[in-house]
Amino acid sequence: MAGNTFGQVFRVTTWGESHGTAIGATIDGCPPGIPLAPEHIQADLDRRRPGKGGSTSPRQEADKVQILSGIFEGCTTGTPVTLIIYNTDAHSKSYDHLKDIFRPGHGDYAYLMKYGIRDHRGGGRASARETAARVAAGAVARRLLAYHDIEVLAYTLSLGGIDAVNLDFDDMWKNRLFCPDKEAAALMEQRIEEVKKEGDSLGGIVGIIATGCPAGLGEPVFNKLDADLAGALMSIGAVKGVEIGAGFMAASLKGSENNDELTPDGFSSNNSGGILAGISNGEPIVARVAVKPIPSIAKPQNTVNLDNEPVEIKIGGRHDISAIPRIIPVCEAMVCLTLADHLLRMQTLEWTPEIEMDEE
């Protein structure tokens, strides 16, 4: 299976399945000399891990990360950094009755059509469990970005049709949905409980902002920074749409309204989301992602089996009501990985070889 590696200079390969022995990531291209210990990674993993109740799956995974390579005396060495997270609470038998049935909204049918085989135990590589490896790798990228004073923050902007309006980012740490509007967060909690009783699920929108990013990151054509960010975020299984800056709203604006005018003090607005012509302009990078409802629901649904016979399915087991808030650190991780990769690409331009010409 190709497509398991992300990045060009800061390269990350994730591996493992939802119900396998372990999942993990190998990072190649991480510069030497960065202080790194498991606790630097664990904080992000703890925000993503299952088993916290409410809108999240009751699967109990500690998600304790171990660093297997690339570290000496507490710092990165420049060699590949390998991270491993063991699966300790996988209940594979819960999926036995789904072995010959395609679950609506999942990758079951597409995987079988592509590979001729699929891992029905929680979805294998298609499971959201894989994102723990991304979060671990993203935490390493975050350590690199910190040296350049770049910070990445994601938050709940909308859930179940309830929007955060009065944003106060101090409030987002006071509720488990990481929503910067405490009144909206309370309404979101009520909505979660209502839908949970119905046996259904919810989608929402995650906002992302990266501050401190220097001007000049990104390539002019096929590796534009916004294109790579969009691709990174769209690679998350539950994400179905990405906006940068004004996004789709820009389509209803006039040029005079959408353009970010320049002044001696900088840009007067940020409809570009910090990126112009695919290259960062020094303003905060702003993005939003649309997150689909979790497809595993307790309500009866129509589908077919391997013999193409119509059957009714009712999915039990341990599933989230919404990918939010657990998807928030995943979004942060993919932005961190993208910025770290482009930052290292940018640094290659700062190297000028000394060329000595032979005298004739």
How would you characterize the overall build of this protein?
With 360 residues, the protein is of the alpha+beta class. It has one domain (5-349): Chorismate synthase AroC (Chorismate synthase, AroC fold). Helices cover 24% and strands 22% of the residues. The strands form 6 sheets. Strands 1-2-3-7-4 form a 5-stranded antiparallel β-sheet, covered by helices on one side.
The shape is globular
- CATH H-level superfamily: Chorismate synthase AroC
Radius of gyration: 22 Å
CATH topology: Chorismate synthase, AroC fold
Parts with pLDDT < 50 across at least 5 consecutive residues: none
Helix content: 10-25%
Level-1 CATH class name: Alpha Beta
Count of beta strands:
18
Write a brief structural summary:
With 360 residues, the protein is α+β, with helices and mostly antiparallel strands.
Task: Furnish the topology, listing elements before pairings.
Blueprint: E1 5-6, E2 11-16, E3 22-28, H1 38-48, E4 65-69, E5 71-72, E6 75-76, E7 81-86, H2 108-115, H3 131-146, E8 151-159, E9 162-163, H4 182-198, E10 204-211, H5 225-234, E11 239-244, H6 255-258, E12 262-263, E13 266-267, E14 275-276, E15 279-280, E16 285-291, E17 301-304, E18 310-313, H7 328-349
Antiparallel strand pairs: 1-2, 2-3, 3-7, 4-7, 5-6, 8-9, 8-10, 10-16, 11-16, 12-13, 14-15, 17-18
Helix pairs in contact: 1-3, 3-7, 5-7
